[in-house]
Design a protein that fits this description.
By secondary structure, this protein is mainly beta. The protein folds into two domains: about 35-75, no CATH class; about 75-180, Sandwich (Immunoglobulin-like), CATH 2.60.40. The protein contains one helix and twelve strands, in the order αββββββββββββ. It has one helix spanning about 10-30, and strands at about 45, 50-55, 60, 85-95, 110-115, 115-120, 125-135, 140-145, 150-155, 160, 165-170, 175-180. The strands form three sheets. Strands 4, 5, 8, 10 and 12 form a five-stranded mixed beta sheet that branches. Strands 7-6-9-11 form a four-stranded antiparallel beta sheet, with no helix packed on it. Strand 1 and strand 2 (about 50-55) form a beta hairpin. The chain is elongated. The chain starts with 7 loop residues before the first helix and ends with a strand.
């Protein structure tokens, strides 16, 4: 077996290589990573009537001549998304309202209007809400939406359970839907 002996110049070169490698490693570990910023594609109406999308490193809404606003839009044609000449008009109803079905039907047990959260999803993306609004005391709601196929849902995660109602929106006019919610009363 042969012994390997470094000359003094070889020791210096080896020490320099180790120092350079250690410094490069330290710099690469402490260097901040720059990741791309991706903002959601929603819009907000500014006080001057113009519309802006989210922008910047914090995905803020910035209206001309104002400070950033990070509040998400409310949707449904009430200033949160662009006004279209098409959309969905609807009513949310809830029933049954009495524990026993009666013959003849009791008018006091008829389905009632329901004020709750209403959400419109694109039919091909049932996970991400496209627009959100609130039905009023009469159960009525409205979404201003671009043409396309949608699914309208309502209510919270527990009872009452509301049906997912499909709706096709054309290039002009509003599609009417009724979203029925089940109270769970039997």
């Amino acid at each position: 077996m042969r012994n390997f002996i470094l000359s003094p110049a070889g020791v210096v070169v080896l020490a320099l290589l180790i120092a350079v490698a250690g410094g490069a490693y330290t710099i690469s570990k402490n260097k901040p990573q720059i990741l791309p910023i991706v903002c959601t594609a929603d819009a907000m109406q500014c006080p001057d009537g113009s519309y802006v999308g989210r922008t910047g490193p914090n995905c803020e809404f910035v209206c001309p001549g104002s400070t950033p606003n990070t509040t998400p839009p409310s949707g449904g044609g009430s200033g949160g998304i662009l006004p279209y000449n098409s959309g969905i008009l609807g009513t949310v109803t809830i029933g049954p309202t009495c524990p026993v079905m009666r013959e003849p039907a009791d008018p006091n047990c008829a389905d009632k209007p329901y004020s709750t959260v209403v959400v419109a999803f694109r039919a091909n993306d049932p996970v991400h809400p496209f627009a959100i609004t609130q039905s009023d005391a009469t159960g009525a709601f409205e979404f201003s939406l671009p043409p396309g196929d949608y699914v309208v849902g309502a209510g919270e995660s527990n009872l009452p359970r509301c049906a997912q109602t499909p709706a096709a929106v054309g290039p002009s006019g509003y599609t009417e839907v009724v979203v029925w919610c089940d109270t769970g009363i039997r």
